[in-house]
């Protein structure tokens, strides 16, 4: 019934990108919690990412955050990563922690601060070139806290100019992903609050400016899969920050609140990849994780996240697309829904165990991680 | 201190459009409540709109909803309205009450139903021409209730094709306003759920396709004034449906939940009208009401709404824009906010009474409406 | 591994209550859509409920809505239902469609209207006695649309007095379930907006006043399973209105938006039933459906809903409670979550097919419904 | 028309409590921003609070946060405050920053950690006695991040036991305020998420356990004034944390997003104070600020906040209660709303300037603060 060969082929193409920052201490605005053995620098973060890749087999790249991951010698870092089996993925500029950015970075009323922010992004472009990355992933914390604090249209104009400069000075094969976020850390308005603004900006810039969708950056109730389908149809979807939320930007483990939603999002990618017109652009969509684990041990949580994402993607692969389109044509809403549910209900754990076995991977990566007691090892190594 | 001449001049330009449908019985999904004396047909609805205009002096046009307001002889209706001092404003097609549209109108999988929907819009274009209106105001109820019910990208393609046909077949001086709504009556996805989708569609169509912002059609927490500023800066804001909400699309009296928010929205219009680059397009923005009054008598509620809107617009006119820009430049957030608040705190009722006196209008339209006992008159006339 | 005997025993105890009103035409506030063959009166509604029970075997009671289901001879109706294999479940008073209730029913400033509302509830108590029901299920649409419309504390006092009268005049073995709803049809305030108010009121009334949880009546983000656990711990949970929502009170098919959430809610019931201290009260919790199907055929949708609910309940039965408590004790968050997920991931369709086979029920009720073409039959019978 | 004598008398009774922590550096979860001259210890924080009181005349007490404000000699601190014209207000235990509390404090599965948390609260009780405070203000960050992480009912039982111990061991004239918060820092469930749970817990404890309402701790759309009215009617409202929010717990300046809402909340207090049955308990309600200013200078922002709160309270005092009740009785919704709006529209700045003049206070405290250049003074003193 299930075409294992096809599934396995599509699983071969399924790659996730790990965020270096997920392996170091994190916190809420109320406290930062230290985890014994957590990575303390970029080399340890890459080590941890490599371990996740070794156990799961589907995480061949690691995203960096600058300046947190800054090193003197980028070639050395690149080699270090490659020795561990990893490529350097998206480079993420930090435009939010410097006091200069309190009132904005690329949108700041001060030309001097805008130039500083642009220079930092260009530094990241440089790092991307040196590390072999083709992606700059841009999240702006820019916004205001109070009505009147700044002029909306002036800020938009400054933002467009700043982005224009960056885009025009990137190498011709590099992509600029523009992330949006509904709110936080600014609490009155955010300069890029929704997909509409990311789309408007990237549309004006050009083909290599794309939208990045963080699953936790939407107002409550938002139909994210519809945004994903829209951006796919416009060839404007650049990538994801995978995580989950119940309330705001909670940065929880993917699918921990609503696994069905993730399945429906993945369905849009699976279908677009099969559409000849969209296939190329859909295949370039980067699946990055962006989670913050406080109550879960970091590496363990990341392995769990990858397995859950892989599982839900596999379920999306099982959807009988032909039958679905037939039901849709007939307005048979129950039947259409049951076709989705039949895929979702299927227990794909045996499929994935078999897949991993064939690839020489541990069938149950979580158990191996625990049995080998990697956490204790890290604690010992990183005292 | 306050430049009365300037204020009065700007008040002269401030016009609201009344919706014919607000003068007839309305309901929730749980009950429709009958108001004795409420208008029973388009002529009575125009009569009621004319009364509101007579008492307030700032509502010279009335929007129609087809087929609710359909008549045999459109020229006659136009003359009837003009005799009462009103022009015909936006023509609103109805693409939601016909059973054929249960699974979509302009997006329906069936070509036959799409053609029917397009034909209805073209009929409205025709009515607009006959009644001297230059605006088609399009709200689609299209969407799905369940995952899988239809294919998102196919619907978007159909929607674009339908709109393209309509846009290309409208007279060259007619505007198409595309409204968005977060949800309802569809409860899984809505085909035009946010400003981003309205913008994307109107951007593709051309200059005379614009976005319509209904104040009640956003997710909770949305910064509407920022959307307004964004659309103004792109010359893509076509108009408003003015109302208020606490929860969803509650269609309450404007500003009844948050008057400050309306003041901040109006501020964006006031400022854009003063910006030489945007002035022309900002002046064309149509301020329509779209409210449903159940617990308030309809005409009384409409007069109240107009007065409240006029009052908040007047407050926005009082903002000291130069001082504000100075404070913004200095990052003086408290000062900037206090400049807005100084305008908002000002009791503009004396200004407006004086303005009305000079125009030969009743100084207190609500009181006159009550004293003349128009409600009793309507009840007697419309038994 | 899975203890089938235990599962089957717990499945035997799992009963759902069907709402009579779900089998007749429904609508949104924009349109009411007619379904050919939909039930036109209470007898046909009971027939349809009986069909759902015959095919699924777990829906032995039907809730009535007064006056929609009002008949002359209640004994006759009761017998009719019993012949069809059904008992009469909760009696639902209607305190929202009469124009008198525009400004409130049990909370109305007018004593006369409050007395009328109380009398209607007492009529329902009488109907409950005559039909053998032990449950009055009370939903109030009471609230206000505008600040100042009425005095909150006066309304609360009136509400408490009205409920006190009803409670004290019910038979000693009858339960009063008090439903809450965040908003709609009132859009400024609702008199019973949340579980806190239902709890406060029922706590004051006495032991047979309990809270009813409608899954669609909460603010976005609400952790419903936590409310359920809280009410269970206080022996104050009376029952559910099962459905799902993405936005507001969407009344969609249960679990159609987030099946995992329903699983987590059912887990609380499963665990409470096993707790000796709470077992008795947890077993009395009534699982009623309250859905409105517009885009799905009504009977088909109801069968689908029952099967989905049964499936998710079965998954909740599979949770390894002992291992879970052990993981919780060890703060092993990943392990605890995986224990839940292991149950959720399990494909329980084979278990349920076997269960149905043993009970002499169709293994696939949806298929049987389609194969027997009950919809066509209904259409023919109900022309 | 306006009875100045009565207004001034009620203004004399209007007192706000300042939070010590608002005068030191604050941040979001993305960055902590340093303000030059910001208070560095409890003595400087009290100095800043005293300055706010000196300029506004209505902030005679300051709330402390333990251990942030911990000193060796509490009598000395009390005297220091009294010399500056301040009393010590609510004592706030900190049960969220210690790593031990990662999985809960009063609800923690570990008895040892629960005892530690209880001991800390009892230490705060002791500090309250030593500093002459009568109020413990308890906010728990307790909750879980993932389904299954802990058992809801067990946590509730532990919470009730912990609170019972604290309540029974407090002096007989001390109050325990129990705060609720919808979410954050826990992102799956919060142990005290809403007024219902605070009410349930305080109701079980006894008369001196009361609910604390933080204006930013509710789901979107919540009608806070209705919760306030409900708690007032039950004599269960202990106090407020005043602030505002647009999205989540944004901790912005009070009324900066919706001043009308604050006016409506204050109206409930004003009316309850006039109700003979509730007057005593309503007068005890503590009006504390709890804001975090990042983009505004801290002392300046606090003065602004106090003035805005005082202004909105004054507007609430102007509501014509008799006319309002008459309109409510007549179901005259427009009239009732206009009565509220008439008070809200009134520019009360002249009244407040006159009031301050009579009290020997600066008429415009914000201007005096700027003219005296207190910020520069602080910067020089606190290098």
Automatic annotation (TrEMBL), chains A, B, C, D:
GO terms for molecular function: L-rhamnose isomerase activity; metal ion binding. GO terms for biological process: L-lyxose metabolic process; rhamnose catabolic process. InterPro entries: L-rhamnose_isomerase, Rhamnose_iso-rel, Xyl_isomerase-like_sf, Xyl_isomerase-like_TIM-brl. Residues 72-250 form the Xylose isomerase-like TIM barrel domain. Pfam families: AP_endonuc_2 (PF01261). Keywords: Isomerase, Manganese, Metal-binding. Signal peptide: none annotated. NCBIfam families: RhaI_grampos (TIGR02635). This is Sugar isomerase. It comes from Thermotoga maritima (strain ATCC 43589 / DSM 3109 / JCM 10099 / NBRC 100826 / MSB8).
């Amino acid at each position: 019934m299930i075409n294992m060969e096809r599934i396995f082929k599509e699983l071969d193409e399924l790659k996730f990108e790990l965020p270096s920052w997920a392996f170091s201490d994190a916190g809420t605005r109320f406290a930062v919690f230290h985890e014994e053995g957590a990575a303390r620098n970029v080399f340890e973060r890459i080590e941890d990412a490599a371990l996740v890749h070794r156990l799961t087999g589907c995480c061949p790249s690691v995203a960096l955050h600058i300046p947190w991951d800054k090193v003197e010698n980028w070639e050395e870092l690149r080699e270090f990563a490659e020795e561990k089996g990893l490529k350097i993925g998206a480079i993420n500029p930090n435009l939010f922690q410097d006091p200069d950015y309190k009132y904005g970075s690329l949108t700041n009323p001060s030309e001097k601060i805008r130039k500083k922010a642009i220079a930092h992004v260009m530094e990241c472009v440089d790092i991307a070139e040196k590390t072999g990355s083709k992606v700059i992933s841009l999240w702006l914390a820019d916004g205001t806290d109070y009505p009147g604090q700044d002029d909306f249209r002036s800020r938009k104009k400054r933002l467009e100019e700043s982005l224009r400069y960056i885009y025009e000075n990137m190498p011709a094969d590099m992509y600029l992903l523009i992330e949006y976020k509904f709110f936080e850390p600014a609490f009155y308005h955010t300069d890029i609050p929704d997909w509409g603004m990311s789309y408007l900006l990237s549309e004006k810039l050009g083909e290599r400016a794309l939208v990045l969708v963080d699953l936790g950056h939407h107002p409550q109730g938002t139909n994210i899969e519809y945004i994903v389908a829209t951006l796919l149809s416009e060839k404007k979807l650049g990538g994801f920050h995978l995580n989950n939320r119940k309330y705001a930007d909670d940065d929880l483990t993917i699918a921990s609140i609503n696994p069905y939603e993730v399945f429906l999002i993945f369905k849009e990618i699976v279908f677009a990849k099969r559409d000849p017109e969209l296939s190329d652009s859909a295949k370039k969509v980067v699946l990055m994780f962006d989670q913050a684990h406080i109550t879960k041990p970091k590496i363990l949580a990341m392995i769990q996240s990858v397995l859950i994402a892989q599982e839900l993607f596999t379920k999306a692969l099982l959807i009988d697309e032909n039958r679905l389109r037939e039901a849709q044509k007939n307005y048979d809403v129950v039947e259409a829904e049951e076709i989705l549910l039949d895929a979702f209900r299927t227990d794909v754990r045996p499929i994935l165990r078999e897949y991993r076995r064939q690839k020489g991977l541990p069938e149950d990566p979580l158990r191996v991680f625990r049995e080998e007691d990697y956490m204790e090892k890290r604690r010992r190594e990183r005292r």
